[in-house]
Amino acid sequence: MYYLKLYCCTLLCFFVIDMVWLVLIARGFYQKHLGFMLKDNPNWPAAIVFYLLFVFGLLIFVIVPSLDASSTKKVLILGCLYGVITYATYDLTNLATVKNWPWIVTVVDMIWGGVLATSVSYLGYLAGKWLQ
Asked: Which positions, given as ranges, span the membrane (predicted)?
């Protein structure tokens, strides 16, 4: 039950923070640079599967090992690395394969991946400490 609660807390943090970014902060940026290929409405089933898998990865590779080590430093470093690397996988693949993919989107998105995963990992770490 502990891990399910930890997962749900982390998932909620991830969703809220990413929605603030996508809807309130970066919407204009993505519209400007990717508007030619954006859907009017997102494919929510695909987005939900991404959120579920990404947060599962955060728990397995970042949060739980950091809780086991009782290390704030570890959660921050691993969270940042996880975010940059996972977002780089998407963005650099697009830069390599999608015609007219803007390099600025790759840079901003990879930075965002690092910020998002670090923030969510830290909040998940705090939730894990609180739930223990």
From this structure: 7-30, 42-63, 75-90, 110-128
